[in-house]
Specification:
229 residues, alpha/beta, six-stranded mixed sheet, four-stranded antiparallel sheet, globular, binds adenosine-5'-diphosphate, ABCB family ABC transporter ATP-binding protein/permease
């Protein structure tokens, strides 16, 4: 469940400047597909069309055959978990941040999600002041720790579809590896769209799609693309 299809999708923010010029691909249910390409290629635009921040110009985006335009916004957003590059946290406890959007969750469920994401020691603390002062119960969360909060939130939400949009791009290489491992565990069994500008950051994708200037220029598996350079 959760097959994503882009069918000849065309999109532009400004009428005279096409951003996606006929993009087609499929992410079969439970599989992981990565979109790789240089900055400005249109990768994030693809995730915004799936999440319906914008509607496609021409073509179709479907989930299990249903046009996303026919799915209620709330239903769609419940079905999709998103881990962005920089997670913005609310000035409330980590517990609140994990629970965000799942107000029916029990303490036990929240604690389990926090433990799986390995952020449980911080659960009662405030991320407040991570750029300025560290308050009494405050804590200066690192980039990796903020991603762990996003991961815990996703585990608790439990969506069938996952978008990882440059989720490890802002991290140093050691932290990146740790967060990648955690993301791979979360993506297990979910339909996952990974967005990245470097091929080296993609590990377990079933297919990699190379996007350049709004067009798919290459597709294949990791080893094939690496040997082609
Ligand atoms: P990528 O994720 O591959 O870096 P994006 O999908 O973010 O690329 O952006 C593709 C192009 O669309 C870029 O040239 C960018 O400047 C432009 N763009 C992105 N968002 C907007 C917007 N809200 N309004 C106008 N142009 C945008
Ligand atoms: P967008 O800002 O792109 O419209 P969302 O509103 O879904 O997207 O928010 C993106 C992220 O920012 C989510 O992880 C959400 O929890 C977080 N967020 C949204 N509003 C706030 C806020 N007022 N304070 C802190 N974080 C927020």
């Amino acid at each position: 469940e959760g097959t994503i299809r882009f069918e000849d999708v065309r999109f532009s923010y400004d009428p005279d400047r096409p951003i996606l010029k006929g993009v087609s691909f499929e992410v079969p249910a439970g599989k992981t597909v990565a979109i790789v390409g240089p900055s400005g290629a249109g990768k994030s635009t693809i995730s915004r069309l799936l999440y319906r921040f914008y509607d496609v110009g021409e073509g179709r985006v479907t989930i299990d055959g249903q046009d996303v335009r026919d799915v209620q916004q709330k239903t769609l957003r419940n079905a999709i978990g998103m881990v962005p590059q920089d997670t913005v946290l609310f000035n409330d406890t980590i517990r609140y941040n994990i629970r965000y959007g799942r107000w029916d969750a029990t303490d036990e469920e929240i604690e389990q999600a926090a433990a799986l994401a390995q952020i449980d020691p911080f659960i009662q603390m405030l991320p407040k002041g991570y750029d300025t002062e560290v308050g009494e119960r405050g804590l200066k969360l690192s980039g990796g720790e903020k991603q762990r909060v996003a991961i815990a939130r996703t585990i608790l939400k439990g969506p069938p579809i996952l978008i990882l949009d440059e989720a490890t791009s802002a991290l140093d290489s050691y932290t990146e590896k740790e967060i990648q491992d955690a993301l791979e565990r979360v993506s297990e069994g979910r339909t996952t769209l990974v967005i990245a500008h470097r091929l080296s950051t993609i590990i377990n994708a079933d297919e990699i799609i190379v996007l350049s200037a709004g067009e798919v220029v290459e597709r294949g598996h990791h080893s094939e693309l690496l040997t082609q350079g």
